[in-house]
């Protein structure tokens, strides 16, 4: 494909409408995660990306397994509404995100993360605030691309956060 055709194709893809849809949800009460969820991004009926994460109800002592536990504790101290009647906090950890190269650099990564967070806030936590953390917060074995880290840093600048931990409360 010549360079002009490639540029034209990229422009057409960028200018097309991207929609997001929940494509996978599974409750796993007896496993490491309480539930798993995936939002996909579509353009012209084709999947161009996905954003997957787990929802867990954690005791604050369990925060110690995360490298960002101090930031998590700090946000809980500043936002007591995070703690439920059982003294637990909802934590959503993003496990994977992928966006085709032609769709990067347009704010779609932030939109994908936010769509995942909004869905969980409205449908799974019954509008209970939660901590939204990136995969690299989990520490050992976590692999996060520089692009995904950049998107996460953007998200943390735009919404209530401490370090890379974001508070989702609406």
Commentary on this structure:
The chain is an alpha+beta fold and 170 residues long. The protein has a single domain, classed as Aminopeptidase (3-Layer(aba) Sandwich), CATH 3.40.630. The protein is 31% helix and 32% strand. The protein has four helices and seven strands. It has helices at 3-15, 69-78, 108-124, 146-158, and strands at residues 18-27, 35-43, 46-59, 88-99, 130-133, 161-162, 165-168. Strands 1-2-3-4-5-7-6 form a seven-stranded mixed sheet. It is globular and about 45 Å long. The mean pLDDT is 86.
Keywords:
170 residues, alpha+beta, 7-stranded mixed beta sheet, 7 strands
Number of domains: 1
- Considering DSSP H and I runs of 4 or more, what fraction of the residues is helical? 25-40%
Task: Tell me the CATH topology.
Answer: Aminopeptidase
> At CATH's second level, what is the architecture?
3-Layer(aba) Sandwich
**Binned strand content:** 25-35%
List the helices and strands and how they pair.
Layout: H1 3-15, E1 18-27, E2 35-43, E3 46-59, H2 69-78, E4 88-99, H3 108-124, E5 130-133, H4 146-158, E6 161-162, E7 165-168
Parallel strand pairs: 4-5
Antiparallel strand pairs: 1-2, 2-3, 3-4, 5-7, 6-7
Q: What's a quick, concise take on this entry?
A:
With 170 residues, the chain is an alpha+beta fold. The chain contains four helices and seven strands. The protein has a seven-stranded mixed β-sheet.
């Amino acid at each position: 494909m010549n360079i002009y055709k490639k540029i034209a194709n990229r422009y057409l893809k960028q200018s097309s409408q991207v929609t997001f849809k929940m494509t996978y949800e599974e409750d796993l009460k007896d496993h490491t995660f309480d539930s798993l969820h995936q939002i996909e991004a579509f353009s012209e009926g084709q999947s161009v990306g996905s954003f997957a994460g787990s929802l867990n109800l954690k005791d604050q002592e369990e925060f110690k397994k995360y490298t960002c536990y101090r930031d998590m504790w700090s946000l809980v101290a500043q936002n007591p509404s995070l703690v439920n009647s059982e003294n637990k906090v909802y934590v959503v950890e993003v496990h994977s995100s992928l966006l085709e190269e032609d769709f990067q650099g347009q704010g779609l990564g932030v939109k994908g993360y936010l769509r995942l967070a909004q869905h969980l806030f409205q449908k799974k936590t019954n509008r209970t605030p939660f901590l939204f953390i990136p995969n690299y917060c989990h520490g050992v074995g976590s692999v996060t691309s520089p692009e995904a880290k950049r998107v996460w840093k953007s998200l943390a600048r735009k919404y209530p956060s401490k370090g890379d931990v974001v508070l989702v409360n609406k």
